[in-house]
Structure of 2-amino-3-carboxymuconate-6-semialdehyde decarboxylase:
Amino acid sequence: MLVSLFRNYEGWESSVVKPDLNIDFHTHIISEEFLNLAEKYGDDRWPVLEKTCDCGANIMIKGNKFREITDQTWDAEKRLSDMDKEGIDIQVLSPIPVTFSYWAGPEQGLEMARFQNDFIASVTREHPNRFIGLATVPLQDVDSAIKEMDRAVNELGLKGIEIGSNVNGKNLDDDSLERFFKAANDQEVPLFIHPWATLGKERMPRHNFMYMVGMPSETALAAGSIIMSGMLDRYPNLKLCFAHGGGSLPYLLPRMDKGWNVWPQIRKTEKPPSHYAKLLYYDSLVYDEDNLQFMIEKFGVDQIIAGSDYPFLLREAPSGEVVDRLSTLSDAEKGKILGLNALDFLNLNKEEYTKAVKEEFSTK
C-alpha cells in the first residue's frame, strides 16, 4: 500500500490513501513580463498580456480578449500555496497553447519559443523540487524546432516539449514534420500534445464550444493521425502524451479499427489502431469516473497520467480527484496514475524525486 511520505492536508478524505508522489502533469504558465511581439513587429495576431490588476490579466489577440487569467498563471508563490493546499508535490509547467504562434515566421517563432523556455527554466531552477518544465518549439520550421528542442533539454534542463495538435492546419503526420518526430525519438524527448487552433472553429464561437467540443475533437484527430501514420512502428522510442484524456479518441477507436479492416488500401501500420493507442499516454482530465474507467479499459493504467489544466476554469481541483473517486483502482494503481506514470513518461527517476520532495517538506 502506498502511504504519504509528506503530509496530510485539507481537502483529502480520510479514506484516501496518499501516493508516494502527487504530480500534476498538466498545468500552464506564462511570464508576468510577457514579451510584446505585436508592438515589436506591428502584427496584432501575437498574443499580448494586458494586466487588469495585480491579481489578473487578459490575453489579447487582435485587440480582443482571448482569455482572462489570474496571477496564479505567473506567480510561482501563489502556485506553491495552491499546491500545498491541494496536496500536489510537483507541477509540470507548460506554455499556454495560444502562444505557440506557429503562423509566425521562423525567426519570430523562435524568439517566442526561446523567451518562454528561458522563463520556464528560471522557475524550475528557483524551485527544483516542486516544478518540472516543458518547452515549446517553433514547429513552423523543423530545423529551428529541432535546435530549440536540443537547447531546451540539454542546456536549460527542461524535461520534454509541449506541441500543438496541428501546425497551420497540417496534421501531425504531415511529411514536413517527420524529421522533428524522428529527432524526438532519437533523443528520447517526450512530447505533450495539446489541442490548439481547433478544427471547425468557425462553427464554435457560441456556447464556448471551442473548449467543450472543439478541443476534444481536435485531440482525437491529432492522436488518430499519429496512430494511422505508421510513425509508432518507425519510431519505437517516441513518447507522446495527449491532453484531456485523448479527447474523443477512446470512443472512436472501434470505428477506426473497423475502417482499418475494411479499407486495406489506407493501411500504413502493421496492426490495427487500437494496438497503437495503447502505446500512447493520456492525461486523466475527463472529470468522470465512468470515462476514466473506459480509458483504463482501452489503454491500461500505465498509460494514464494525472493532470488538472491548472489554473484555468475547466481544471480539475484537486488534480487527480477523479482518480481518487474510482473505486475499481487499487492503491498501487492510483499511485501510478497520480505520480509515478508522469515520472516514467518524462524519463525521470522515482527515488530521486521522492527523496527531493521529502527533503523539501522536512524543512518546512
